[in-house]
Amino acid sequence: MPNQPPISADALSEKELAILRLLAGGHTVKSIAADLGRSEAAINERLREARRKTGVGSSRELARLLAEQKIWDRKIDLSPRAGSSEAPSVPHHQGFAWTKGRIAMAFLIPAAALGLALSASTLVPHDAETAQPAAVAPVAASPLAGRWSLDVTKIPEEERPRAVTITFRPAAGGRWQTVVTIIAPDGSERVAESTAALDGVAVPVAGTMPFIDSVSLRQPDTDTLVMTLGKDGQRVSTRVYTAAKDGKSMTETIVWAAQGMPDIVTTTFNRIG
Predict the structure, then answer these.
(1) Residue 190 near residue 204 (C-beta atoms within 8 A)
(2) 30 CB contacts (<8 Å, ≥6 apart)?
(3) pLDDT tens profile 95-132
(4) How many degrees, rounded to 5, is the angle at CA 77 between CA 149 and CA 86?
């Protein structure tokens, strides 16, 4: 059988690569849709587009070829660039994005689905050894503390979860506890929990969100929280959460890990507790 020529991933979008990465890991279209809070039709459409761009007739074969070429390591990365002390971080596909396919991750989702929103210049490194000490505001004084519900009406219908809630609570030692719950269209539930200091050092994420396993936090101001999510040592996304002046709503800005200029997604949460 002739050798398969290398597949070029340059034309593939971050969403397509994220879905193919999960497919290469043994997921089915159904499980990917459930994990990402999206419809199976939306996942299949992404896969069809990826096959069209690469000329490979099978989605699973395309995922296998990309995995063999270690495309994930080269394509899904937001490592700090030379000459820059800060860089955008983080899954693709291990976060919570509608269009990115990680609603969860969202934060978490808690970052994972527990993610948060600022200007790209405030995003911080995910690696513990690169994190620098920074002055942070007391968690208890932050208007972000409380329980928030995602405004799902602003999410494309084909990618819309039933519900997403994020809870931020002060914890011992000046740390921040985050709990993210995602209810997929089929009613299944995913939960992610973490407790982290506001020093940019990554800590484990517990729960049932397979696309992330670590999170790090920074709080540049009392009304702003920056969250970076990771999976298997790779950055998935960085989320910036900013509370409105009246404390009734919160903006989430998501920057997915990618090569080149990353897409930025903005969502809105409303206070429910």
Answers:
(1) no
(2) 40
(3) 344 444 444 444 333 333 333 333 333 333 444 334 44
(4) 80
203: which strand partners? Answer: 215
Where residue 158 falls (left for φ over 0; alpha for ψ -120 to 50; beta otherwise) is alpha
Condensed to tens digits (0 to 9), the pLDDT of residues 183-216 reads 988 899 999 999 999 998 999 999 998 889 999 9
- pLDDT at res. 73: 57
Angle between helices 14-24 and 59-68 (to 10 degrees): 90
Q: Supply the pLDDT for residue 86.
A: 34
All structural domains of the chain: 14-75 (1.10.10), 120-271 (2.40.128.20)
Whose tokens are 């982290």? That residue is 196
Closest CA to 37 of 209, 182, 148, 166: 182
Region 165-171 average pLDDT:
93
